[in-house]
């Protein structure tokens, strides 16, 4: 049995870290308090430790990823759904929730259209589309809602793409 130098309570030896006069509970609370008061100093210390222990950090991250893969995927999916909803609402609120061609108002029917029919140009080096869904919405917001996009219903969008850039309604 030992007496904690901070709280003065007599505790078992297992309640103390090796070489410390303070019990684990008091030591942890003191450490938390110090980190709050010295936030910048603490963050710099952590940054320096990580830089000096890169291999340990990478090994830990990899083992964490393996052990928690389903949790990581669940969080990523939740984030993706929220981000998709947020960016989609930003885009549709700007351009309007109505087809620019036929006036369709059904939210599930509406889509973003490339006014100049250049949507197929948004590909990366391996030929994969990069401007779909969340990526497209982010790009539109980042470009500050350019006039090269509009809202069309799926019927008008497909009709426009199949008829050389002209919807059946405009023929």
Write a structural description.
The protein has 171 residues and is mainly α. Helix content is 51%, strand content 8%. The protein has a two-stranded antiparallel sheet with strand order 1-2. Strands 3-4 form a two-stranded antiparallel ribbon. β1 (2-3) and β2 (10-11) form a beta hairpin. The longest helix has 27 residues, at 69-95. It is rod-shaped. 12% of the residues are buried. The model has no long low-confidence stretch (mean pLDDT 90).
Summarize this, please?
The protein has 171 residues and is mainly α. Helix content is 51%, strand content 8%.
What's the SSE blueprint?
Elements: E1 2-3, E2 10-11, H1 24-37, H2 39-52, H3 54-67, H4 69-95, E3 110-114, H5 133-142, E4 149-153, H6 154-162
Helix pairs in contact: 4-5
């Amino acid at each position: 049995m030992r007496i904690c130098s901070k709280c003065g309570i007599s505790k078992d030896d297992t309640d103390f870290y090796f070489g410390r006069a303070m019990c684990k509970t008091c030591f942890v609370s003191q450490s938390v308090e110090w980190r709050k008061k010295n936030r910048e100093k603490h963050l710099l210390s952590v940054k320096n430790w990580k830089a000096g222990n890169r291999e340990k950090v990478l090994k830990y991250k990899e083992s964490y990823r393996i052990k928690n893969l389903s949790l990581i995927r669940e969080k990523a999916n939740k984030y993706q759904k929220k981000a998709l909803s947020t960016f989609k609402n930003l885009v549709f609120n700007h351009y309007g929730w109505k087809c620019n061609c036929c006036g369709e108002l059904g939210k599930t029917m509406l889509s973003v259209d490339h006014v100049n029919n250049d949507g197929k140009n948004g590909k990366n080096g391996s030929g994969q589309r990069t401007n779909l869904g969340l990526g497209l919405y982010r790009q539109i917001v980042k470009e500050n809602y350019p006039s090269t996009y509009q809202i069309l219903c799926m019927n008008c969008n497909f009709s426009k793409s199949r008829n050389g850039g002209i919807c059946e309604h405009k023929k």
